[in-house]
Amino acid sequence: MRKLIFLSVIIFISSSYSQTIKGYGIKAGGTLSIQENEMVPGKLFTSNDYVGFNVGAFAELFDVPVFSLVTEMNYIQKGFKGNLSNMYYRRILSWKEKIHYLNVSLLAKTRLESEIFSIYLLLGPRVDFKLSESDSPAEYPDFDFKNYITGLKIGLGAEINLSVTRMLTEFIYDYGFEDVDYKKNIKFNSFDFRIGVYL
User: Torsions phi, psi of 76, nearest 5?
Assistant: First the structure.
């Protein structure tokens, strides 16, 4: 696990400095996690969406017309509020599950731009490396979350060129390719809303 995180950091840093850098900066915002799951025999599991936050850094490479490449590294919170009812014992258990991830993304960016304002599309793969997890209360179903999960990001953004810097805002849909748990059929899809600034 640590080797994978270390390798991702090295790739992020080396790619940022080995290519022509168009710009770099920071982004932060909120994340809405939506969980997909299947029913377990003898039990009924339901979940509510979870709102967390994300913050990270990015570097934009290749200063060519219309196209560029964006590398990102973010801390991101995902999770859900779960409810489990046992059909045999009529017991209901409610809890909150939060998973902390290091998110690494490589996104193609195509844009329509002017001197002051531009809009753009983002598309590319991502990998989430699990940093830790927490639950409340301590009594909850037995989960075994994977150390890393893969997915695809697609998003829409806008930039405004101010006199001293550039500001941006983005709306991202993050689709999960696989289950997040080794034993259970649980998948995360999420929406990110972010604002950022070029440094």
Answer: -140, 140
Exposure string over 76-96, b if 16+ CB within 10 A, otherwise e: bbbbbbbebeeeeeeeeeebe
pTM: 0.78
Higher per-residue pLDDT: 110 or 92: 110
- Distance from C-alpha of 161 to C-alpha of 43, rounded to nearest angstrom: 54
162 contacts: CB under 8 Å, gap ≥ 6: none
Q: What is the CATH number of domain 2-198?
A: 2.40.160.20
Please write the tens of the pLDDT for every residue from 1-40.
555 555 555 455 555 555 577 889 999 999 998 876 654 5
Would you state the pLDDT for residue 102?
Answer: 95
* Structure tokens that stand for 180 in this block: 């997040």
Q: How far apart are CA 150 and CA 154, in angstroms?
A: 14
Of the CA atoms within 13 Å of residue 53, those in its CB half-sphere come to: 6
107 beta partners: 70
- Give the integer Cα–Cα distance in Å for 181 and 74: 21
User: How far is 28 from 168, CA to CA, in rounded Å?
Assistant: 11
Contact 12, 24 (CB under 8 A): no
